[in-house]
Write a structure and sequence with these properties.
The protein is an alpha/beta fold. Helix content is about 30%, strand content about 20%. It is built from 14 helices and 29 strands. The radius of gyration is 27 Å and the shape is globular. The chain starts with 6 loop residues before the first strand and ends with a strand.
Length: about 600
């Protein structure tokens, strides 16, 4: 029987993915899903598409078999089935020891923390498992940092494999573990809960309410699993899984620690983030945990290290509060701010949580235009600290000569870099008529004293698009000599009579045309995907035709496609960079070919 496993990615969100198993055109089952072990009830294969058993002798032999037709190319009959020696698994605390008996390798790959430290066979470039089993996941759970490191390392090393953490998952931590990167689960914890007379549901183990007809039977446990799996799958498809994750992480100190370690670990990795999203995707900021979300951390890092204000706009800094409506300029409050300011010659920057600072020229991009926050008017110490860090760096990297502060946040005087600053709020509401009057007076006085040049409408648009290009495309030189044409909101960018791009409100970015390819090759810093020499590029990009990748591929971002070192087109990444080494199916959708 073919040892392969047909699969395709139906939805993804960072390390969380929903796989379609079997025939790509018509998957027989999807993940996350269950693995049945010995003694489990006989569940529908769509819910539990795999079975597993272990031999009683040592070292143990692990067997995993599919209950549906997953084996390519025929996808007929049940299968595949795999068998592998697990080897000796030592406790994670004995990581310096060598177990001696090494586990096997192949389509089914058992891995322990100790094996990750000692077995060089895991680095074999030809090792391409279909299913990875973290055999000591339960033991690692008591050390959240190690668990997160193990899962993340395995996802990056084997991006095309399913991951199972035996004995670790339940309806109460399913969303969190899927977020970390786990694909398959089992009923071990539910079985123990049932034996103890407890019901393990999405809130954790509890006594069933017999007055309401509840019980602790395995049937009830399976119902809890079914509801949890359905919830996670739907949120994953909608791109809103993080909301469930934040809720679940609050169940226990260990799960809080796991999420925090994961966010910190992922924030330091390249090739994990997404940059361009559709307008329906939201970053829901329902707890302070969002402050550590990798998207938020990446925003702060970009603003502190790479952001530059539009040329000539870095003289007078105007600090403004945020608004519930995004982008801010569409809100009634910001329309009043803009009217009071009365000029586009100043640099408007919003003070907000969790992002810290959002310049007006980047307010339409992810995540600035796509986050929802419960506004209370109260700032935590961490929120204020982020604003302070970002404001210090913004002022240090620009030539501001004056600050007009309408944000209403009380910060230490030294944060403003000893620049002259006028507080236009004076403890009043930002939208109060007297506050708005002071805002207008403060801006006019700053311009009269220090000078600032008003921009034309076209220049203002180009300044904004150049800022977006620096963030999304790694440079803006390709926009030199480009002119603005058309009507809002879909302005067209023309170069020498050819349209090179159009502003796309849905993607909050520039939609690139075929004519932009040569310009981008010379004047931007897009990630570069090199195709195998001689291959005829007809469809979308998949790993079979990709020779190598240069630069960080962000999910949703445009990549420059080259062959024999010549630019041949553009594609839009469906998968972030960490998946490109071995994920089956489409990696990027072709949208321009020369």
């Amino acid at each position: 029987m073919d040892a392969g496993l047909g699969r395709t990615v139906l939805a993804r969100d960072r390390f969380a993915r929903s796989w379609g198993l079997g025939d790509r055109r018509s998957p027989a089952a999807t993940t996350p899903a269950l693995v049945l072990t010995e003694g489990d009830p006989d569940l529908d294969p769509v819910l539990a598409p795999f079975t597993s058993s272990s031999s009683r002798r040592l070292p143990s032999v692990l067997t995993v078999a599919a209950r549906l037709p997953f084996a390519p190319p025929s996808f007929e009959g049940e299968g595949p089935a795999w068998e592998v020696s697990v080897g000796h698994v030592l406790p994670p605390e004995m990581e310096e020891a060598n177990a001696g008996e090494v586990a096997g390798t192949g389509p089914l790959l058992p891995v322990s923390w100790q094996r990750m430290r000692h077995d060089e066979a895991l680095m074999d470039v030809d090792l391409d498992p279909a299913l990875v089993v973290l055999t000591d996941a339960v033991a690692l759970a008591s050390r959240p940092a190690r668990l997160v490191e193990a899962i993340t390392t395995l996802k990056q090393r084997f991006p095309g494999a399913l991951l199972w953490t035996p004995g670790l998952g339940g309806p109460d931590n399913l969303a969190l573990l899927v977020w970390l990167g786990v694909d398959l689960f089992d009923l071990a914890r539910s079985t123990r809960a049932s034996a103890a007379g407890a019901l393990l549901d999405r809130g954790g183990p509890r006594l069933p309410d017999q007055a309401l007809g509840e019980d602790a039977s395995m049937d009830a446990q399976v119902v809890a699993w079914t509801h949890a799996l359905a919830e996670v799958r739907q949120h994953l498809m909608m791109g809103s899984l993080r909301t469930v994750v934040d809720r679940q992480a609050m169940v226990a100190p260990s799960t809080v620690a796991q999420l925090r370690h994961h966010d910190a670990f992922v924030s330091e990795l390249s090739g994990v983030r997404s940059v361009v999203v559709d307008e329906e995707k939201r970053l829901l900021c329902m707890s302070e945990a969002t402050l550590n979300d990798p998207s938020v951390v990446a925003w702060e890092r970009f603003m502190r290290t790479s952001y530059r204000a539009p040329e000539g706009l870095d003289r007078i800094l105007v600090l403004l509060p945020c608004s519930a409506r995004k982008p801010y300029r569409s809100s009634p409050s910001h329309r009043r701010f803009i009217e009071a300011i009365g000029t586009n010659a100043v640099h408007e920057v919003m003070v907000t949580s969790p992002l810290g600072l959002v310049p007006r020229d980047l307010e339409q991009v992810w995540p600035a235009a796509n986050y929802d926050l419960a506004v209370t008017g109260r700032w935590s110490g961490d929120e204020v600290a982020r604003v302070e860090r970002m404001l210090r760096d913004l002022i240090a990297s620009h030539g501001y000569v004056a600050i007009v502060d309408h944000a209403g946040l009380d910060l230490p005087a030294d944060v403003y870099g000893n620049l002259p600053r006028v507080d236009t709020r004076c403890d009043e509401a930002a939208g109060a008529s007297t506050s708005l009057e002071r805002l207008g007076d403060g801006v006019r006085e700053a311009i009269r004293t220090h000078g600032a040049r008003r921009r034309s409408k076209d220049a203002m648009l180009m300044d904004e698009w150049k800022s977006v290009s620096r963030m999304h495309f790694g440079g803006d030189a390709w926009l030199n000599d480009v002119e603005v044409r058309g009507r809002p909101p879909r302005y067209r960018l023309m170069h020498g009579g050819e349209q090179v791009a159009q502003w796309s409100p849905e993607r909050a970015s520039l939609a690139l045309s075929k004519a932009s390819v040569p310009l981008l090759a010379d004047g931007a810093g897009l990630a570069r995907v090199h195709l195998v020499s001689g291959v005829v590029w007809k469809g979308d990009l998949h790993r079979g035709i990709v020779e190598r990748v240069e630069g960080e591929v962000l999910g949703g971002a445009d990549v420059l496609v080259l062959q024999d070192d010549r630019p041949v087109g553009l594609a839009r990444a469906l998968a972030p960079g960490w998946e490109w080494a071995g994920t089956p199916g489409r990696l990027a959708k072709a949208h321009q070919r020369l």
